[in-house]
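Re: that chain you flagged

S.,

Sorry for the slow reply, it's been a week of failed gels. I finally had a moment to sit down with the sequence you sent. For the record, here it is as I used it:
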Amino acid sequence: MGGDVNGAYKTEDNGKHWRIINNGIASYAVYAMAVSASEPEVVYAATEEGLSKSVDGGEHWRTLPHTGKKELRITGERKLSIRCIAVDPRNGQVVYAASPGGRIYKSTDGGETWAVSYEKTSGGEADGSLRVQYGKVTGDYYGDFAVPVAAPQEASGIQGIGVTMKGEGVMPKDCFLILKTTSGTAFRSRNLNEAFRITELHDVVLKASEFVPDPDFVKKHPEAVGATFGDKDWAQVTRLDFSCSGALPQEAYVAKFARFFFTRSGGEEVVIRDFKVDQTLQTFGSIHVGPPTAGPAHSVTIASKDSSLVVAATHDSGLLLSRDAGKTWKRLPTPAKAAHATFHPMNTDVMYGAFFKNGIMKSTDGGKSWTKLTKGILNNSEMLEVAVNPAEPNEVYAIGAVDWNGSFYLSQDAGESWERVNKLRTDTKTNPTLDFFNGGNANLSAPRNLSINPRNPKEIFLAANWRPCLSTDGAASWSERSAGADISCITDIRFLHGKTYVTAMDEGTLISKDGGSSWHQLSPMKHTPGLSGHNWRVAVSDINASPRILSTVTPWYQVPTAVVRSDDGGTTFQSVTAGLPDYRIRPNTMWGQGHPRALAVDPNNPQRVYLGMDGDAANGNSGGGIFKSEDGGSSWSQLPNQPASRRMFYGLVVDPTESKRLFWGACGTGGGVHRSEDGGTSWKPVFTSENFIWNLHATADGTIYCSGQHLWRSTDHGKTWTQITHFPEKRSIVGIEVHPGDSKTMWVSAVTWNTVPDGAIYKTSDGGTTWQNITGNIPYVKPLVLRFNPDTAELWAGGVGLYKAKQ
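Prediction finished late last night. Pasting the structure tokens below so you have them in one place:
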């Protein structure tokens, strides 16, 4: 089984226990797997970084040559890959791969080399115009292309500038023609977005009076306010930009451009650029020039009865069928957006296909015609995969989802009618999160794949978003099977009085009373708007012999930030939002919005607590930064003065030797370590050797550690710093821990910010003079949190999954 954050898992007892098998895998993001029927020890894992292969049942992996994103792109990618690897059931050396880049590849040597089996071709525009797509190319909110302009030899008489273009009927929010001049000033036209609505080539002509100083230029050059553009200035134009902005990460806006030109009095035109002749452009942001790129290929399937029959499901060309083992392909008359297809095990003229919101379809004539099978299937369900019981071919299975709500569909009459199943029995001991079930039952959550046991087709596995599950009775009932298949993203770990407390993204705050053998949910106890979401930090303080628990949360919706507080050891909780930002903070944040990733309790006064979140003030809003509570987290106020940078990760500590001395670790412009000597009233930078500080740690004697690419130590309250790691790898040190009884013993985790298994855990016993790599066999090598429990002499590591080791 593959997971999106912790790699691959293997079970040898029908899912009762899984273990993580990541030794050598290319990436922790695994979105498809395939097993060779003729050689079951040969397993393929399609990861974000390439195709990994094991020849010993997943115990060791090797990334196959040239399969990475920047090469052939034989990868598994989120929402793009469904069943993207298929192994010939008779000849395990033959492998097909459906690429997110749109190609179908074939290998005849077990994946060592690949040939393109299918590639969508597209020519240029018949009228010679140039196709430009704004959006859905990068994550940018703008796209722009530039054309150099040479003033005509006779510039007098120019009265305007024009473009011949057509759209595809969908308008961007804003579209402007921007003129750069020899004086350096940039001028912007009126909004031209209406031109995208017109689907025939037409001229858009602009007069000089329709241009004003470009607001983005004016921000950097205030002296340009009030500048004017007149007919005399046409000769000064050196470059034009055609720029669009709006929801470009999510939407695409297409226009075809034939030419740019000047107009003269009397109707004469002077061509600036004719795209029939020259289509070279300089581009910026989210923009694609030229024919549309092929959509992803989601799945590929080989007929079990006849290996020459192969069907591929694509995002924009529907189903493709090859009858000659991939030599040639024919597009079938299906919806353009296809997720998956399969063959009847005995009669290959019978095919089934899953077509996202177009549902399930069936062909009985080898793909020549198709019938939609709708009886019993939810109208708005996105159908992802379909399978046929090899022993009882009239039994057909399919999976789909409406948002996060999943469905398994069973047909016992070859697809004529379907029975929907969406309940399963949960394993509350293994997976104690209570958000999505009641009384041991849960709704199926967004399944991604289904798999039939070839030896016992009554056994069906589902890989699902929240709880993978198994049916042993042909889909009549389902039970969760997730023990050991951890996808928990642990964000903090704390110990008090023999108990362990953790926070986890999407899951909440949990407690273990037996050293991690079992866990119980503390908060939330059920799916709660304004409370359920990403939990970041937890602080546990002993107040009058009753533990006070504080957790910081970014709820999924309703409120942007909350602190969850319990004064009775977790029996009851209250959500606190007073004084915290009531909007989503965007500017200068680490992960797209401000998150409360820092929480520091004054060691000398547990009523005084500081919270840190990233994000600048903007548009009249006060932004993130540091917030203070004087009542143990019941109410909060933003400090009136903030450090020079509010972009942060984990870095916030109180000096145990002086409660008024605070340290803040910041990232990017203005990054480094900032110190306050007056409880946050004023700040000054005290460390600038690195400008990305991921974490801070304070020991009882006032020693301060900060981490960027290296670990640094200050023994004089931040006045001077000493570098104490010199690891050659370019990683980020995030986890920091110091033995409370032996300050010379320390641990750090060094990580990379991607899905590649590139990281390590190091230990020093001599104060940092020498370091030992103790990563060992931990399945996830880049934990972000390290905590040492002195009562048990165990080091805990939290990242994806939770691990501990005796020290």
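What I noticed first: The longest strand covers residues 253-264.

Talk soon,
D.
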